[in-house]
Design goal:
2 domains; 4-stranded mixed sheet; 13 helices; 15% strand
Length: 322
């Protein structure tokens, strides 16, 4: 017997996982069927974190008979016939919803914007703090969009939340390397009716092979673009203060751009100061459209309000993911 954490608690577990911690092994569905929600098990403190006032621990069981009222805990019942790989093993007989199942579970309470962002973060290569926001470092990708899609396809028909999850997955951009890259990806991947400036196809942090002259200049056989727009042969870069200051980094950043331009790949660079207000994002978007040869759309009142709402939501300093 053990506990199963899911929903916001599973999201907290996955998104805060550091690079030096191995991903847990898959757990069988049988392990989930044995999971209980009992106060005594919670008090043992065998989970990575416990319940907190105002921040409940989300537990999952397969049958209402295994559900009990526990202070500062929210217990969910899941009777869906879940596919293999839905859970991962934790110490002391506990389990956690897999990244794929966590994505589905979050669809039950998250808005479409929230779910797209959750998908971006689950498919990213960075971790965030236990406070629910803020970059803490690099890590391996937890799950891919292909695996998310395969998991959703394996679910029984009419599974609750699956349709919303599929709709969100259409706009998820995997392999973003920072929260700001994820935000930029959402701005340009989403269509105008959802508050975006697209939809534009985006491949984040994809390897770009370079010729011998570029290899000598960069001391590498390839480089990685932040947000590559394949339909326009354009690399959209976010130049953060943390990673693009200092003489060496500035030299390397400029050398990257020179090599890309020489290969016929357009480069456009965004900085925090260029996109920290919606009016500035408007101007930056106009310049990006000019650079890639895209016509400047005229938005309806409803589309413009959606853009303002999306920008305000993403830039709310109090907003957290879990």
């Amino acid at each position: 017997m053990g506990l199963c954490i899911g929903y916001e608690s599973a999201l907290r577990y996955w998104l805060t996982k550091p690079a030096d911690e191995a991903l847990p092994e898959p757990a069988t569905i049988g392990r989930f069927k044995q999971a209980e929600a009992i106060a005594a098990l919670v008090k043992e403190g065998t989970l990575p974190f416990g319940p907190e006032p105002g921040r409940p621990l989300h537990l999952v069981v397969c049958d209402p008979a295994l559900k009990h009222r526990i202070r500062d805990c929210q217990v969910h019942v899941c009777r869906t016939d879940l596919p293999p790989g839905s859970f991962r093993s934790l110490p002391q007989g506990n389990i956690v919803s897999s990244p794929e199942l966590t994505f589905l579970q979050m669809a039950s309470t998250a808005s479409l914007w929230q779910l797209i962002e959750v998908g971006n973060y689950l498919c990213s290569t960075f971790s965030i703090s236990d406070k629910g926001r803020g970059y803490t470092g690099k890590r391996e990708q937890l799950v891919s969009t292909t695996l998310l899609g395969g998991f959703l396809s394996a679910l029984p028909p009419n599974t609750y939340g699956a349709n919303k999850a599929r709709a969100a997955l259409e706009y998820v951009v995997e392999l973003t390397a920072s929260p700001k890259e994820s935000q930029l990806a959402m701005h340009y991947r989403l269509p105008s009716e959802l508050g975006g400036r697209g939809p534009i196809s985006i491949a984040a942090n994809q390897a770009i092979q370079i010729d011998e002259h570029g290899q000598r200049l960069l001391d590498s056989s390839r480089l990685v673009g932040d947000l590559f727009l394949p339909d326009f042969d354009c690399d959209l870069e976010f130049d953060s203060i943390e990673f693009h200051t200092g003489r060496f980094r500035l030299d390397h950043t400029q050398a990257r751009r020179n090599v890309l331009e020489a290969m016929g790949i357009k480069t456009v660079s965004a900085t925090e100061g260029q996109i920290n207000r919606i009016e500035k994002l408007d101007d930056f978007t106009w310049l990006l459209e000019e650079r890639i040869g895209l016509s400047h759309p005229v938005y309806t009142r409803e589309e413009r309000l959606a853009q303002i709402d999306l920008f305000d939501w993403m830039n709310d300093p109090q907003r957290i993911l879990f």
